[in-house]
Amino acid sequence: MAAVSQSAMTAEPSVASPKMTARDLNLFYSDNQALFDVNLDIVERQVTALIGPSGCGKSTFLRCLNRMNDTIDGVTINGKVTLDNRDIYDKHIDVVQLRARIGMVFQKPNPFPKSIYDNVAYGPRIHGLVNSRDELDEIVMTSLERAGLLKEVKDRLQSPATGLSGGQQQRLCIARAVAVSPEVILMDEPCSALDPIATAKVEELIDELRSNYTIVIVTHSMQQAARVSQRTAFFHLGKLVEVGETDQIFTNPKDERTKGYITGRFG
Ligand SMILES: Nc1ncnc2c1ncn2[C@@H]1O[C@H](COP(=O)(O)OP(=O)(O)OP(=O)(O)O)[C@@H](O)[C@H]1O
Ligand SMILES: [Mg+2]
């Protein structure tokens, strides 16, 4: 596992053998620049939290990590993003395969209008990951178990996913992401639609998942960032202002803007 280097601060966001990197990343929505020269390393099997005021570019940056911005008209991206040292914007990259390696969980739980079983089976089916119904059953069960949902749904796998509670739906979406065995999971405010109990469950789950996956989570809750992440990156006006170990960012931020944000002076 990669260790965070001593210099992983404002000026030098690098770590030894990162899972993913962004280098001099700029993004424009037509003429409006939303990201400015972002340099960030994502450490393998850790949770990296992205924090910062509304509109600072957190979701935009997160979407760059699995090329979700490709689907938005008028977007121009320059700079480099790598996964295991390979440029994910290289023209030879298969974006469908890439998104299987880098899964995503959205703010609002978005189960498909299908059964619980079929939601989780969806990815393995379209990616041709299984040869038999038994194998598929196995993946569905393991994924639901990993997402901490199996106990609650095992007797109603054929029921519509939309009949689950919000917190259960979000864990189902996590199970769906996990089912294709991704290496990285991106989460954009995954708890913002959940009550405190469901939030606590999802946070627990994130903590467990990090033994197998590399996780990047956008959150507006500094408590949540402090609870679930090992590294925190603070964005402001499209720039990555500061990144470091979560404890350091919250107890001893180097930049005045970070200090201002975490003490609630703006944002
Ligand atoms: N599809 C889009 N088209 C044009 N501009 C966009 C688009 N998405 C985001 N932007 C702009 O890019 C900037 C960054 O937006 P982004 O959604 O990344 O911020 P954020 O940090 O995730 O904010 P929030 O905390 O409110 O979710 C904002 O100025 C926003 O208006
Ligand atoms: Mg956002």
UniProtKB/TrEMBL annotation:
Gene Ontology MF, one: phosphate transmembrane transporter activity
Record bears the keyword Nucleotide-binding: yes
CDD domains with a match to the protein in the record: ABC_PstB_phosphate_transporter
PROSITE patterns assigned: ABC_TRANSPORTER_1, ABC_TRANSPORTER_2
InterPro entries in the record: AAA+_ATPase, ABC_transporter-like_ATP-bd, ABC_transporter-like_CS, P-loop_NTPase, PstB-like
UniProt KW ATP-binding keyword: yes
A GO BP annotation: phosphate ion transmembrane transport
UniProt protein name: Phosphate ABC transporter ATP-binding protein
Organism: Thalassospira profundimaris
